[in-house]
Amino acid sequence: MRDKKRIYRKLFTSTFYLSAFTFGGGYVIIPLMKKKFVDDLQWIEKDEMLNFAAIAQSSPGAVAVNAAILLGYRIAGIPGALVTILGTVLPPLLILSVISFFYAAFRDNAVVNAVLKGMQAGVAAVIADVVLTLGGNVLKKKDIVSVIIMAGAFVATFFLEINVVYIILLCGCIGAVKILIQIKKAQKCGDSEKCC
Fold first, then answer.
1. More confident residue, 49 or 130
2. CA dihedral defined by 145, 149, 151, 155, rounded to 10 degrees?
3. What does residue 13 show for φ and ψ, rounded to 5 degrees?
4. Structure pTM?
């Protein structure tokens, strides 16, 4: 029981800290979650974090909250998911509540505007890091279908300007077909004496 409390406390404090000091949304918090829960704590594998990022992106709602739900559920079940939701949602709720009281002063303050402009550059750098890290992981696997999906999604988004929702749905369907084909091949290999 003491061990569970320690895990819940660590989940809450980690997600609270990440959410409180991360500006730029889910695309920024995901690599920090990876660093904390994959690299530092070693509670999940790198591939799982990549899958969480894909699921969080394709699910309705905020990417950071979706990723936190998946992470908490994977580590500690439903109570873990509830703890990570609270840890992720509480900081923005508190910060926005405070800002709403002082909105007029913040809106016209030159220092606050300068800080926000600087943060935009930092957020862009972190998002670029996410793209390079996750894209590099796909390339390292040397799975030609995944590489084609990644390249096609990039072209469809930036050059053809197709709505991201359609791209995500199409990529999900292609991934599902790929897995079904792999399952059927595995079943055939299991049924016959000679493996395909």
1. 49
2. 150
3. -65, -40
4. 0.61
